[in-house]
Write a structure and sequence with these properties.
Length: 679
Amino acid sequence: KMAAAVGAAGAAAGLWSEVNRCGQNGDFARALKSVNKILQINKDDVTALQCKVVCLIQNGNFKEALGVINTHTKVLTSDVIAFEKAYCEYRLNRIESALKTIQSASQQTDKLKELYGQVLYRLERYDDCLAAYRDLIRNSQDEYEEERKTNLSAVVAAQSTWEKVVPEDLGLREATYELCYNSACALIGQGKLNEAMKKLQKAEELCRQSLSEDSDVTEEDIEAELAIIHGQMAYIMQLQGRTEDALQLYNQIIKLKPTDVGLLAVIANNIITINKDQNVFDSKKKVKLTNAEGVEHKLSKKQLQAIEFNKALLAMYTNQADQCRKLSASLQSQSPEHLLPVLIQAAQLCREKQHAKAVGLLQDFADQHPANAAEIKLTMAQLKIAQGSVTKACMILRSIEELQHKPGMVSALVTMYSHEEDIDSAIEVFTQAIQWYQQYQASQTRGANPKSPVHLSLIREAANFKLKHGRKKEAISDLEELWKQNPKDVHTLAQLISAYSLVDPEKAKVLSKHLPSSDTMSLKVDVDALENSHGATYVRKKAGKLTGDNQQKEQGQGDMKKKKKKKKGKLPKNYDPKVTPDPERWLPMRERSYYRGRKKGKKKDQVGKGTQGSTTTGSSELDASRTASSPPTSPRPGSGAAVSATSNVIPPRHQKPAGAPATKKKQQQKKKKGAKGGW
């Protein structure tokens, strides 16, 4: 037994030497085999179990490593292996479990604090994460300081982007492209797009410089690393309205086939938003990239939510009503207070011509979520206007108390009531808004009650509206209030005098004394300079004295003008002064008393008319033997007179055209001949 024990100890020592050598060389697969042999000798060896967990983690077998930890809980206590356990849970995307493991550890080591910051970032607890990284930077001094600063800047960028927090200046020196990139993201969150673009261009330059120093890095590797920077550049272009440039850059990134599924999902989503209801086939292909495995662990909650919203909208645009309802209902269950799911459902109902049901759905949501009722009611009003129920739309808008006094709302309501010719309601809207501002100003100034510019503007608009619709007496009080606030306002005084002149002329005369005199109102204008200025439509000719020669020329031109005669009008070529012109010649043919209309149903005689072999023309006309030898037939009665009278035909402009039908037939023949060109 003693010999066997010594032999086992010697074998274990050799295995530990192998484990140590493999660990230093990074060959964790061979190290794991040696550790397993050690565990066969002593299955509860704590050091061997720890080494096995580390080897599995280094090989990427996080699930197996966590299984070893959970199997040997008696030996591997939380104090011994807390970091490894939390790290395995973090890599398996069990973020909440990782947080509990870290918090349950009795001793918070630097490794656990680093991991704690990562876990808080994934949980989107940015304030706690910021505090954790600040503490780490303050109390750590090692070669990982640059990485900690990069993580700190990423937290600040996330706060600016997702929580709209104005970031504080951390005083970080942007010496790396990662820091420049995070700084650009923070600027995008603040809406400073031009500054953000410059930061991204600097980040691209630093990235190229950093990677080009490594001879093993190819141009393709550099482009792959730059993909995320270019994606953010394209996003800025899209926000600036340069959609064509953004789309081109997005497609270039997709062609590179980056391995980051999160980046691909975001780019695909942004392309879908550019396509909207156009190029739906391309959008359906791009949406597949958003369904890739692991996307949900790469993006923030708001990014994932935006992708789901766009999926629902795409289903609506592609007429997949059931899919649209399913996606929007799922979104509503996840975020009951969010507006977009219910708006998408209402839009789908409107596409199905169920406007009443859509309004009912929106009303239910407004009742359940009063905080979001304003935007919902605006949509309801829009639907009512689309249905032609303008008065009901006005009622819905007036029920939004927080917007009643806004100038835009007042303008919209007044316009809609004017369209419905409900002037009293329009004036009531003005009155309520003016009263609100009076009460607000009184509460803010403790009774001093000065009028704000918006308040005065509303009073003026109300007065103009009342004057326009003949409410002179009601407008007078508003104009007097305005004149009281600014007695030097001549325009208001003129309006007030004009209104009083129709109601109380004596009062108008009294007020007219306050108008400035004509001398003070006159403007010194150089008339000649004004007439000679560019764009003058009329220029007065300067009067000058004429010399002898010029005067004679002017007189000669005047004589010539007097001698000019009017040209005689042109007469028709066949005009006959002896014939009285047709009195109806200026009227269209259809309006003349002798117009009988077209004779329908009669066609010209044609050779091929009738049954096969028959002819419509007389045989005497077609018999060639009779044309030369036969004596001419006697003319029909009146035919000779018609031929002899050709020289004395009265032109059709001067008499009633007896041959009008024949003229029409000739025109029809010409049209038919022209129609043959279609062959």
